[in-house]
Amino acid sequence: CRAVQxxxxxxxxxxxxxxxxxxxEIAAAIERSFDFLATTRRDVSPRQRSxxxxxxxxxxxLNAEEQQTFARLAIFPGPFTRAAxxxxxxxxxxxxxxxxxxxxxxxxxxLYQLHQVAxxxxxEKLEQAGGLAAAQTAHGRYYARFLARQAAxxxxxxxxxxxxxxxxxxxxxAAAWRQMAASGALGDxxxxxxxxxxxxxxxxxxHQGVELFAAARRAAQPLAAADPxxxxxxxxxxxxxxxxxSFLSRYAEAKPLLHEGLAIARELNEAEEMAFALNHLGGVxxxxxxxxxxxxxxxxxxxxxxxxGSRGGQAVALLELAGIxxxxxxxxxxxxxxxxxxPLAEEAGDRQTAAHLLTGLSLSCRELGEWExxxxxxxxxxxxxxxxxxxxxxIQAALTLGELSRRxxxxxxxxxxxxxxxxxxxxxxxxxxxxxxxxxxxxxxxDAGEVEAALSHFRQALTLAYEIEELxxxxxxxxxxxxxxxxxxDTTSAxxxxxxxxxxxxxxxxxxxxxxxILAGWGGQSxxxxxxxxxxxSRAVALAGAG
Length: 547
Description:
Among the domains are: 8-132, Arc Repressor Mutant, subunit A; 438-543, Serine Threonine Protein Phosphatase 5, Tetratricopeptide repeat, CATH 1.25.40. The protein has helices at 8-15, 23-32, 51-60, 64-73, 82-89, 93-101, 116-128, 132-154, 159-168, 170-183, 186-202, 206-220, 228-247, 251-268, 271-288, 291-308, 311-327, 331-348, 351-367, 371-388, 391-407, 411-428, 431-447, 451-467, 471-487, 491-502, 509-520, 537-543, and strands spanning 80-81, 106-108, 111-113. The chain has 28 helices and 3 strands. A hairpin with a 2-residue loop joins strand 2 and strand 3. The protein is mostly helical. 75% of the residues lie in helices and 1% in strands.
């Protein structure tokens, strides 16, 4: 039914195949060609024996202008506005209305759309008339300009309006980008980059971000050595593909792309592009536990953004510096950096970064026992994420409020928040969020004395953190497993694991504060941090029963 978009004849013709093919196979066949939908029954009118016959008959009733317009409109794979139809397909208002009256074009509010089968038919006619290439160029150029216009809104006070505008036509946006990459329309790709990036990032379309910016990178690479436009597109695509890979916790793949993008940006002396790559390299270093490297990268990023006067960019850098301070256990410094960044983000109209900073304030206030402030900041950030449709942000809010709920003894609410974080993380491919959610669920079970359930969650968190090379989280999970092993009487494994954890400089300060008195009070044992660790990470993971 979806494949033929409710067309009664299409449903009837598709149903005739139900005894031979599965619904998925029927839908795939329709997508390949609507000629699949036909019957040889003689008791059916000739013009109703196939959808092609129906469209051939309808086509014959159109005048020349309507035929040309209908064929050009087939270049739109999804809903489109009247403005897009006029510019791309040269569709006049009266012609659009006539096609809608003949049921060849749907109208819903201020958007128009062709049935999938109607689009197939129209595209064939467009190709037969030799107009496909010109229509593709016009379609790509229109949406490149469209994305360029939305970029300013997505980074300013009209962020929600920009998100809504792109979301309404996102099928056309993605198709236009792919066509621009396939045809080598590098100028159009350059114009569209910021708008596409910010939309995909805010709406957590990480896999699509990797796909689309990889396509642009491949399009620009052959010309990048000689053509300045191509070199710029290549550098920006490298960095954005790397950023989306880091969203997916694929740090080993992200780093070389970000480094190459940074090198080209330095060569071109493009300060904002340098800052973009530095910021996300710093973020990767922080997630991997190298706080010193992260700090150097982000400080350089902040200096560049002060140089360019980008107040929103400064807010983003201060957010990263706050994250570094938080992981180092410097909660007052983290709060100070968030408080400096928040008015900058609000002044720039960047609600997403403002929400991240509010969440950062919630985290640090929680660690200092400032419960009311932590709850207020966390809820304010959560409200913005939900308003923007930012699923990545919703995960961060759920993890933050979930841990706050656990510490306040609100166990059912904490479990609900963390289960939500795991579920959404799995849906968008955010493996770091999934691991963190499992870790937090393990803490809830450990608090309740449910040792086996706690171990299951901690081992799942450890497995994921080990796979994505997120060492701080892996160490946190190992710490919890080691502590549970003590209670289970497996002191040999516990000592080995906790000795390894204690010797790692990437262990968060909060974890070290918990671990030090346990090891110091372990009768007859020397401080493991004063001697070489006996385990590698892989052996520690195996000893913990994960991996």
